[in-house]
């Protein structure tokens, strides 16, 4: 699996992290979604090649991608922040990957428009049986993230390099 395979899964547009930094993250939505980081070239895997570095999801894409990864908000030593966030920020800032890494994301949100009566009915049913509608989005994010990682691992017999525990 590489970034070309992801076009059919809704990841069509790739943006350089350095460009997002220049624009202060204004193009990144403050919505939940799944995101993928890729390198500007392919590299060898146990089986085949890929350009995918990392697959994950976020409750707020801008907060994760811009505030934490790009700007390093909260990554100072002693702060209570995920070690993966700290590690990826270090790769981007200190190891020179900011100009070499691109990101694509898929927003996940229940949208109810006046033209979508079926969606209104589905959401009404879900609200009747589910206490927190946001849990549905979290579940969708988790399922999509895990399915993408499973596909990557099936194709390459390992996870993307930045998804590995260290």
Rounded to an integer in angstroms, the radius of gyration calculated over CA atoms is 17 Å
The topology string of helices and strands comes to: EHEEHHEHH
Instruction: Specify the structural class.
Output: alpha+beta
What is the helix tally?
A: 5
Strand order of the largest sheet: 1-4-2-3
Q: State the end-to-end CA separation.
A: 23 Å
Q: What coarse outline follows from CA principal-axis ratios?
A: globular
Mean pLDDT: 83
Largest sheet: 4 strands, antiparallel
Q: Which bin fits the share of residues in helices?
A: 25-40%
Care to count the β-strands?
4
Number of structural units classed as domains: 1
What does this entry look like structurally?
The protein has helices at about 15-20, 60-70, 85-95, 115-130, 135-155, and strands at about 15, 35-45, 50-60, 100-105. With about 170 residues, it is an alpha+beta fold. The protein has one domain. Strands 1-4-2-3 form a four-stranded antiparallel beta sheet. α2 (about 60-70) crosses α3. The mean pLDDT is about 85.
Short synopsis of the structure:
The chain is an alpha+beta fold. The protein contains five helices and four strands; from the N terminus they run E-H-E-E-H-H-E-H-H.
Keyphrases for this structure?
166 residues, alpha+beta, four-stranded antiparallel beta sheet, 39% helix, 19% strand, globular, 5 helices
């Amino acid at each position: 699996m590489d970034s070309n395979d992801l076009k059919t899964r809704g990841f069509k547009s790739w943006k350089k992290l350095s460009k997002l930094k220049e624009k202060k993250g204004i193009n990144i939505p403050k919505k939940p979604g799944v995101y993928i980081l890729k390198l500007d070239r392919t590299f060898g895997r146990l089986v085949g090649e890929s350009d995918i570095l990392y697959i994950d999801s976020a409750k707020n894409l801008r907060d994760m991608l811009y505030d934490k990864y790009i700007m390093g908000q909260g990554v100072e030593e002693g702060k209570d922040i995920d070690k993966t966030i700290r590690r990826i920020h270090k790769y981007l800032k200190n190891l020179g990957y900011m100009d070499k890494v691109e990101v694509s994301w898929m927003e996940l949100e229940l949208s109810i428009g006046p033209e979508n009566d079926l969606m209104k009915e589905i959401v009404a049913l879900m609200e009747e049986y589910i206490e927190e509608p946001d849990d549905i989005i979290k579940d969708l994010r988790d399922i999509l993230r895990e399915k993408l990682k499973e596909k990557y691992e099936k194709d390459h017999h390992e996870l993307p390099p930045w998804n590995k525990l260290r």
